[in-house]
From TrEMBL:
Name assigned to this protein: Galacturonosyltransferase
Entry superkingdom: Bacteria
GO molecular function term, any single one: glycosyltransferase activity
Glycosyltransferase subfamily 4-like N-terminal domain span: 3-146
Length: 361
């Protein structure tokens, strides 16, 4: 029996998007997970994982805190002595990768998105690229979730070894099964994301305000944690009846049941959008931005529409275009999305890719 160590920055993503992979790995391996404690850690332990509580400042850039994380990873590697390490997200990839190099431990990194530091350029981009070069040079394999991320990393000469593009985290087609398309007396739109500027919340709110006045048979729903800067605005718009804010939801499927379309106007550096994959799997049309991690999931005019980033007017026009469709045309859009994820984004594709790489150790 082998021993696999997984480094991640949160329990929610590890459980919701990698549960099937962990279950597969546990069949023939001991699996140890290193991440901050959270509500889903218990679920991961119940699957059979051993848990190591590891403090990670996900968005902080304090070098002392990051140095502590590096030493913590080194201690964990020396204690666990894994056959191979799997890492996800920037800090586990970078600092875990560096310590794997130091301890000569085989490791596989997953680039779940390049992050705002790389996206925005400048000094932080240069530092992040330098750290990636240190971390990924000796990786046994690097998984990318979209072609654009792979092209950027390769243009910087960061990776020397094996690499693959996988369909994000994929989607569990049994859990997110196709749902009956609801009647269209009232057209419900969904925004499922952290309520923050880069997720396109301003464009969604602009569109909701405009469309609700013109088409009173529409409803605009918002699901997700709200950042403090948007709390008052959402509260006011909710009270005015422009939007319906439902807060954080542990299971979004009940909202997909009433939804006619998911709107994801993000311009955040995505790896591959799980929101879009899950929506399409449920048979729901999608409207999203023309950027990597989103455009791969939507065929414009077939299973949804593509809009320009940070362009409220373009979003409004695409929503109106969707509203003008007949009921059967909306339904067929959703079915086309389901067919696309069945073909290209089944989570089993990701599980098999990891099985192929980890079986060597």
């Amino acid at each position: 029996m082998g021993k696999i160590l997984i480094l991640a920055n949160n329990d929610i993503g590890l459980y919701k998007f990698r549960k099937e992979l962990i279950e597969e790995l546990l069949k023939n391996n001991q699996v140890v997970i290193s991440l901050p404690n959270g509500e889903f850690v218990k679920e991961l332990v119940n699957l059979g994982c051993e848990f190591i509580d590891t403090n990670i400042s996900r968005r902080g850039t304090n070098p002392i805190t990051d140095l502590r994380l590096m030493f913590e990873y080194k201690k964990i590697l020396n204690r666990v002595k894994p056959d191979v390490v799997l890492s996800y997200t920037i800090k586990p990839n970078v600092y875990g990768g560096m310590m794997c190099r130091l301890t000569k431990t085989p490791y596989i990194s997953n680039i779940t998105g390049l992050g705002t530091a790389v996206e925005n350029g400048g000094v932080l981009q240069s530092i992040t690229i330098f750290l990636y070069k240190l971390a990924l040079k000796n990786a046994s394999c690097v998984f990318f979730q979209n072609k654009e991320n792979a092209e950027f990393i390769n243009s910087k000469g960061i990776i020397k070894g094996k690499q693959k593009i996988i369909p994000g985290s994929g989607v569990n087609l049994d859990h997110y099964e196709i749902l009956d398309y609801p009647e269209d007396d009232t057209i419900n739109f969904l925004f499922i994301s952290r309520v923050m500027k880069q997720k396109g919340i301003d464009q969604y709110l602009d569109a909701a305000e405009h469309i609700r006045k013109k088409y009173p048979n529409t409803q605009f729903h918002i699901l997700g944690f709200c950042e403090e800067s948007y709390e008052e605005k959402l509260k006011a718009m909710h009270e005015e009846g422009i939007i319906q804010y439902h807060g954080m939801q542990s299971d979004v499927r009940k909202f997909h049941q009433i939804s006619h379309c998911t709107i994801h106007p993000t311009y955040y550096p995505e790896g591959m959008s799980n929101v879009l994959l899950e929506s399409a799997a449920c048979g729901r049309p999608i409207i999203t931005t023309n950027r990597s991690g989103c455009r791969e999931i939507v065929d414009d005019g077939v299973n949804g529409y593509v809009v320009e980033e940070q362009n409220s007017q373009d979003l409004i026009e695409k929503i109106e275009k969707f509203l003008a469709l007949k009921y059967e045309e909306k339904k067929q859009m959703g079915l086309a999305g389901r067919a696309k994820v069945e073909r290209d984004f089944d989570r089993q594709i990701v599980v098999e890719a990891y099985k192929y790489e980890t079986i060597k150790f």
